[in-house]
Amino acid sequence: MNKQRGTFSEVSLAQDPKRQQRKPKGNKSSISGTEQEIFQVELNLQNPSVNHQGIDQIYDCQVPEQSNSSLNTRTQKVRHCGHCPEEWITYSNSCYYIGKEKRTWAESLLACTSKNSSLLSIDNEEEMKFLTAILPSSWIGVFRNSSHHPWVTINGLTFKHEIKNSDNAEHNCAMLHARGLKSNQCESTVIYHCKHKL
């Protein structure tokens, strides 16, 4: 893999995401408009009511320092250094594919596998807050064999976060929802997102 040094650029996220501007620093620019388009399109179309808290934590490769110029505008530094595909966003040490198609839980699992990633997983409370702030409801890589079995991840580990609506015997797959995690029928069609750890 070609090791290129990424070029920093600032992206201002005003309260109206359509007013984003990209201002390259320096004369080399290895950043395409794709990162900016992802922020604008995904935030504006998929979740127009989002308050953009946590957006200043979308990072490529390393966590840069952030600066706030006002209450309504958050400035962040974005760097594309080649670890994630351009269509994906990066948070902390993971790449996230923002899906647009609705699929069953099993179909979503296969779709993510075909992208050399896994169905969305949540490692901690901070990541869950970030994901609920920017993503619509989506499947996560957690399921159970029946209502008499524990929730487990696709890696076979016991899942420790609370999942709402677990009483329903037909709801054996988990999804991320605006208010946390909830169970759903595995055959329901829901938007999916994928995650790939760096």
UniProtKB/TrEMBL annotation:
<feature type="region of interest" description="Disordered">
    <location>
        <begin position="1"/>
        <end position="32"/>
    </location>
</feature>
<keyword id="KW-1133">Transmembrane helix</keyword>
<feature type="compositionally biased region" description="Polar residues">
    <location>
        <begin position="1"/>
        <end position="12"/>
    </location>
</feature>
<keyword id="KW-0812">Transmembrane</keyword>
<dbReference type="GO" id="GO:0030246">
    <property type="term" value="F:carbohydrate binding"/>
</dbReference>
<keyword id="KW-0675">Receptor</keyword>
<keyword id="KW-0735">Signal-anchor</keyword>
<dbReference type="GO" id="GO:0016020">
    <property type="term" value="C:membrane"/>
</dbReference>
<keyword id="KW-0472">Membrane</keyword>
<feature type="domain" description="C-type lectin">
    <location>
        <begin position="91"/>
        <end position="195"/>
    </location>
</feature>
<dbReference type="InterPro" id="IPR016187">
    <property type="entry name" value="CTDL_fold"/>
</dbReference>
<dbReference type="InterPro" id="IPR001304">
    <property type="entry name" value="C-type_lectin-like"/>
</dbReference>
<dbReference type="Pfam" id="PF00059">
    <property type="entry name" value="Lectin_C"/>
</dbReference>
<keyword id="KW-0430">Lectin</keyword>
<dbReference type="InterPro" id="IPR033992">
    <property type="entry name" value="NKR-like_CTLD"/>
</dbReference>
<keyword id="KW-0325">Glycoprotein</keyword>
<dbReference type="InterPro" id="IPR050919">
    <property type="entry name" value="NKG2/CD94_NK_receptors"/>
</dbReference>
<dbReference type="InterPro" id="IPR016186">
    <property type="entry name" value="C-type_lectin-like/link_sf"/>
</dbReference>
<protein>
    <submittedName>
        <fullName>NKG2-C</fullName>
    </submittedName>
</protein>
